[in-house]
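Quick illustration, no need to memorize.
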Amino acid sequence: MFAKVLAKVLANWSVRIGGGVLLLLILLSVGAPYLGTIDPTMLDPGSQNLLPGTTNLFMTLDGDEFEHFFLMGSDSLGRDIWSRTLYGGRVSITLGISVAILAVIFGTIFGLLSGYFRIVDAIVMRVMDGFMSIPAVLFAISLIAMFGNKLPVVICAIAVPSVPRIARLVRSVVLSVREEPYVEAAIALDTPVWKILLRHILPNATAPLIVQGTYVCAEAILVEAILSFLGVGMPVEAATWGNIMAEGRSQFNAFPHMVLLPGIFLVLTILSVNILGDGLRDTLDPKFNKRGDK
C-alpha cells in the first residue's frame, strides 16, 4: 500500500520539480563547509563590497592570508555572501521544518479534541479564533520582544499563529468522520476514546496534514526572513537570508547583488516548497483526485 502511494506521489511532476529543487537547496546548506566556503562570520576590511566572481586576498583576524574566490561577492564588512547564504539556508530550512512539525503536532491534538468533544470544542475554538485575529508577524514580534531572539523562541513565535489553521483542518475532518458507521460501531463496542481518535479518525487527516504542513513550512521561512529583515528576528550577527538582505539594503543602488542573490535563494526555497505542497495536494487529497477523474 505504501509503495503504491509513494509511486503515485513520485509520478506527479510538481512533486518531482518542487522536491528536487528543495533537496538541492538542502544539500547545498548541509554541504556548506565542503563547498569551498569560509566561515560566514569572518571579516576582512580589505575585501569590502566586492562584486560577484571576484578573487581577492583574504586576511583573517589572526593575520593569516589566503586567496579566496567570492562567487557572490562580499558585503560591507568583507564577509563572503556565498558562504553566508549557504549557512543561512541551514537556519531558514531548519526553522521552517521545525515550525511545521510543531504546528502539526499541537494543531492535531487541539483539532482531535475539539472535533470529538463538544465541551472542549466550545472553549478551544474560541481560543483559536482569538489567535487567528492577531497578525502572525505582529504576534511573533511581540513574543520575541518578551523572550529574546534565540532560535527556539523564534520557532515558537512563528509556530503558535499556525496552530489554529491546523486545528481547524483536523476538526473539520473529525466532525465528518465521527458520523461514519465504523466509528459509531467502535463507540458501540465501548472502544477507548484514544483508540478511536488515533486508529479510526486520525488516518483520515494524514494526507491533508502533510499538504498543510508544507504550506506552513513555506510561510515560516518567509516570516523569519521578514522578521530578520526588520531587525527583530534572529541576532544581527547570525547568517540568515533576512539578515543578509537587511545588511545590503543600504547599498542596494550601488551593490544590488547583496540583496538580490540571497533573495533568489529565499524565493526558490519558498517556491519549491509550495510547488511540492501543490503536488502532494493533487495526489493525496481525495477531492482533487475526484476532480481529475471527471
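The mean pLDDT is 85.
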